[in-house]
Amino acid sequence: MKNRSIRSHGSATQRWLVAFALIGLFFSATQPSAGQEGDLEQVLQFHLDRYPKMQPDDLYKLLHQAAMGSEHAIPNREAASQWMDRELAMLQRSSAASPDESLYESLSPDGRLVRVNLRPHLQSGRETDLLLDAFVRTAEEFSGDPLALESYCERAVELARENLLPFSPSELEAHFAALKRKGYPAVHHSKSYADAYRPAYRVVLRELLTEK
Questions:
Q1: Are 25 and 54 contained in the same domain?
Q2: Under a CB-based contact definition with an 8 Å cutoff, are residues 167 and 35 in contact?
């Protein structure tokens, strides 16, 4: 009788331990992913190293694309196709990609959204139709998240306060606040960025690119 009581007590204890473990797993699964801010910092650092002439508008454009994708850029597939054809024709007449211009550049902290640079894409001989399909599908399938954009902007201001970004924290905060009042619109690259780097890319979900 005594032994059976001990076994019953032990079984009850085990059940409680399992229950507490499951509760702990539930709460850990619902917490924000650790390292997300660090990943965003890495994305920003990569782009600042690669494009040191970035201005606040270029930083915001990067954050906007990371959170909102490319939906603002596509009125319809035909327009997207004509736009790409014109841009590729212009690139064919201009200089080739520089050695440090990579094919893909991560935008979002999780690496799902990327910029596909058109010069190295063209130079590699990859199929333009596949990139166009990925571009259009990204606009159709990716749901932008304004709250994520707001969070990214806040984190960028924090990084500026930590002297990890080459921008004034107060000016950056005021710049983002003004854009928030306008509903976080899409913006163009700054003139200094455009003149220095001649950006030509498409924002796509990496998973939609069949050519890796």
A1: no
A2: no
185 contacts 179 by C-beta, under 8 angstroms: yes
Residue 188, both tokens: 């163009």
State how far the Cα of 185 lies from the Cα of 64, in Å rounded to an integer: 8
pLDDT of 119 over the 90 cut = yes
Residues 93 and 172 grouped into a single domain: yes
| 126 vs 177, residue with greater confidence | 177
3 pLDDT more than 60: no
The structure tokens listed for 183 are 């509903």
Q: Determine the Cα–Cα distance for residues 123 and 134; give it in Å rounded to an integer.
A: 19
Residue 178 has pLDDT above 90, yes or no: yes
Beta strands in the chain (DSSP E): 104-106, 113-117, 201-205
Q: Are residues 21 and 112 in the same domain?
A: no
Exposure string for 52-87, b = 16+ CB within 10 A, e = fewer: eebbbbbbbbbbbbbbbbbeebbeeeeebeebbeee
- Residue 12 tokens read as 């009850």
- Which token pair is 150? 């707001």
pLDDT digits (tens, 9 = 90+) for 58-69: 999 999 999 999
**Domain membership of residue 8 as a residue range:** 1-31
